[in-house]
Amino acid sequence: MRQAEVEKLCLSFAATSLVVQWGDHRVFKVGGKIFAILSPVGQRPQTLSFKTGGDSFHILTQLPDIKQAPYLAKSQWVYLERLDALPSRDLKAYLIRAHALIAAGLSKKRRAELGLLTA
């Protein structure tokens, strides 16, 4: 998956915003909380960090080119040293899950404000 594809995918998730910060990193948030961080445009190799669940964190950090995310490992974030460290289909699923994990941590009131509550 390419950087533009990752960005397009993340922005397709409900209530997602994009903020450029920390030296031009592309930071994806839901309800003001970060769920993924993409390296600056033009950086080589392109990198990505995202939130995972406990089992996924353990599995992913055993794979080549995927490490515990600096400063965020205690919160079960992973760091892909290259965007192609995972097949596109798998990366898409993990990003969907990252968004869902962070959204689930928002208050019920905030999720309702953002239209994230399901009937």
Residue runs with pLDDT of under 50 for 5 or more positions: none
N-C termini distance: 33 Å
- Main β-sheet description: 6 strands, antiparallel
Beta-strand percentage?
Answer: 15-25%
In the sheet with the most strands, the strands line up as 1-2-3-4-6-5
| Assembly context of the chains | single chain
Find the count of extended strands (DSSP E, 2+ residues).
6
How large is the radius of gyration? Answer: 14 Å
**Category by helix and strand content:** alpha+beta
> Roughly what is the average pLDDT, rounded to an integer?
93
Helical run tally = 4
Describe what is shown at a glance.
The chain is α+β, with helices and mostly antiparallel strands. It has a domain at 3-46 and 81-113.
Description:
This protein has about 120 residues and is of the alpha+beta class. It has a domain at about 5-45 and about 80-115. The chain has four helices and six strands, in the order αββββαββαα. It has helices at about 5-10, 55-60, 90-105, 110-115, and strands at about 15-20, 25-30, 35-40, 50, 65-70, 75-80. The protein has a six-stranded antiparallel sheet, covered by helices on one side. Strand 2 (about 25-30) and strand 3 form a beta hairpin. The longest helix has 17 residues, at about 90-105. The protein is globular, with a radius of gyration of 14 Å. The termini are far apart. The mean pLDDT is about 95.
